[in-house]
Write a structure and sequence with these properties.
mainly alpha, 14 helices, 74% helix, 0% strand, transmembrane helix, Peptide ABC transporter permease, transmembrane, membrane, BPD_transp_1_N
Length: 321
């Protein structure tokens, strides 16, 4: 397993290099640059804009621009945001805690719902309860997150007034107090439910189908023939084999914590990485845009690695040498 992990990490290096080239070229293929919107004779001198382009290296050949960017990126210098006039690393660190809090909250909701409904549907398949859970899953797959978010805001914020429709915390509260954290939970609960509940469907179906399949295998028949209690058969023998797909999904969810929240954060005006990514696209804030895209790429590759490692941890039969 250790040798496999080292090989995978080394194999990620050329992949990241290729991704960085694609990200850089796509950013440069966008019309204009981060200073284009400032060329207005009534507000800014065009000669000053051209001088800024020269100082920032926007007029250099593309290979030179890429080399300068990637060399600084490897050293932890992601550049300076042209929108917020601050280092991109500081900007990301400022927004990241909100996104992580939202992502972890949504994952808890996802796994709690998936395990509960998947076990119920798998232990009693083709019953009324199974059909109801299946209908809810298909409904969750059919509804886009932005539609669910808009309806949630309209019903629970505007009509009922139960939740705030924007922000991550009440700015009047002192940071670190009990009221502060309760306000954070109050602000994150609805985006987390929208993000987590809609992701539950596929997890539930995977668990349900695996429980049904494993319940028909020979080792389960043998356990029943020996008089093993039904609860032990499901909780020990069947469930342990059935959760393997869900455990491997946990690795991919590392990237989902950030990337999956882009639309949800925008709908709820939740100040996190997702909303920052959308703002950087509209404002042509290339340093921020490329840094976030590379971060998502690294998290995706790391998630694949974690998924493979967890697969071997859960099922020793498939451990890699």
């Amino acid at each position: 397993m250790l040798k496999y992990t080292i090989r995978r990490i080394l194999g990620m290096i050329p992949m990241l290099l290729l991704i960085s080239i694609v990200v850089f070229l796509l950013a440069k293929a966008m019309p204009g640059d981060s200073l284009s919107g400032e060329i207005d004779p009534n507000n800014t001198d065009p000669e000053y804009i051209e001088d800024m382009r020269e100082r920032l290296g926007y007029n250099d050949p593309l290979p030179v621009q890429y080399f300068n960017w990637i060399s600084n990126f490897v050293q932890g210098d992601f550049g300076k945001s042209t929108r917020y006039k601050m280092p991109v690393s500081d900007l990301i660190l400022e927004k990241l805690p909100n996104t992580v809090f939202l992502g972890v909250s949504s994952l808890l909701i996802t796994y709690i719902l998936a395990f509960s409904m998947g076990i119920i549907a798998g232990r009693k398949p083709y019953t009324i309860g199974d059909h109801i859970i299946g209908g809810l899953n298909y409904l969750g797959l059919a509804i886009p997150s932005f539609i669910a978010g808009v309806f949630a805001i309209y019903i629970f914020s505007f009509n009922l007034g139960w939740i705030p429709y924007s922000g991550s915390v009440d700015i009047r509260l002192t940071q670190g107090t009990f009221e502060y954290w309760m306000s954070r939970i109050h602000h994150v609960i609805m985006p987390a439910i929208v993000l987590g509940a809609l992701s539950t469907a596929s997890y539930t179906q995977f668990l349900r189908n695996d429980i049904i399949e494993n319940s028909r295998k020979d080792f389960v028949r043998t356990a029943r023939a020996k008089g093993t209690p039904t609860s032990k058969i499901y909780n020990v023998h069947i469930l342990r084999n059935s959760i393997i797909p869900l455990v491997t999904f946990l690795g991919f969810d590392i990237a989902t914590i950030i990337s999956g929240a882009i639309i949800t954060e925008t709908i709820f005006t939740y100040p996190g990485i997702g909303q920052l990514f959308i703002d950087s696209v509209f404002n042509r804030d290339y340093p921020t845009l490329m840094a976030i895209t590379m971060m998502l790429s690294v998290l995706t590759l790391a998630g694949n690695l974690v998924a493979d490692i967890l697969y071997g941890v859960v099922d020793p039969r498939i451990r890699l040498d």
